[in-house]
Amino acid sequence: MVEGEGAARGLRFAVVDSGVGMPPQVQVRLFQPSTQADNSAARRFGGTGLGLMISKRLVEILGGTIEVWSSPGQGSTFAVTIDPGPLDGVCMLAGPLAGTPAAADHVRDAGAADLACRVLLAEDGPDNQRLISFYLRRAGADVVVAENGQTATELALAAEAERRPFAVVLMDMQMPVLDGYEATAGLRRAGYRRPIVALTAHAMEGDRERCLAAGCDDFLSKPMSRQALLETVQRHAE
After folding, report:
1. Interaxial angle between packed helices 180-189 and 149-161, expressed in degrees from 0 to 180 and rounded to the nearest 10
2. Residue closest to 188 by CA, chosen among 222, 212, 219
3. Domain ranges within the chain, ordered by starting residue
4. Residue 94's pLDDT band (cuts 50, 70, 90)
5. Which terminus of the chain is more solvent-facing, meaning fewer CB atoms within 10 Å of its CB: N or C?
6. Quick count: other Cβ atoms within 10 Å of Cβ 64?
7. How would CATH label the architecture of 115-237?
8. Where are the alpha helices (H) located in 112-206, listed in sequence order?
9. pTM value?
10. How many CA atoms lie within 13 A of 181 on its CB side?
């Protein structure tokens, strides 16, 4: 809580990392649409640049502010401050609660689908890797994860040569080293004919057409529902 006599009441959340940090000229552009610290085709880190813009808009809708402090080589701190309104009688938690049995039952119910196939997930985001893999594995799929398009290309072609092919490739279109568009086009040039489904955070007009033009068979927009993911994989794996 941010309090004090004469000070505006507020609730502040801060996220601190020990990453590469950012110089001032990058920080001033962070909350602009689709801005990344490194937007080169072969950038070291992935992402779309949309997250901070969306975060800023959501915070402003709540009447709050979002700030960043960062130095190259010393990491970054992002802080959100909002006015939560009256908190009289609200129970404040000292720490996170463990998952409840009801939540665990819900997760078990979510694994009812049956996917007896191998899936290659090309995705550089750790959170998306864990979530998508969890959904697929709970549904019975054997999942192999690639962190960039170059690795995905090598794994897909090697699986074909070993006669242990992937039934479906889930291809994130924004990845470091080699993005999904280039990886898909390269696989098609190499004669790869199995289904490739594009995963993209972009949902603008023309994005689906661009993915299909690169050689993808289908398109899923992130964030995607578990049902849409499993139905799409099942349809292409048959």
Report:
1. 30
2. 212
3. 11-82, 115-237
4. low
5. C
6. 18
7. 3-Layer(aba) Sandwich (3.40)
8. 126-138, 149-161, 180-189
9. 0.59
10. 12
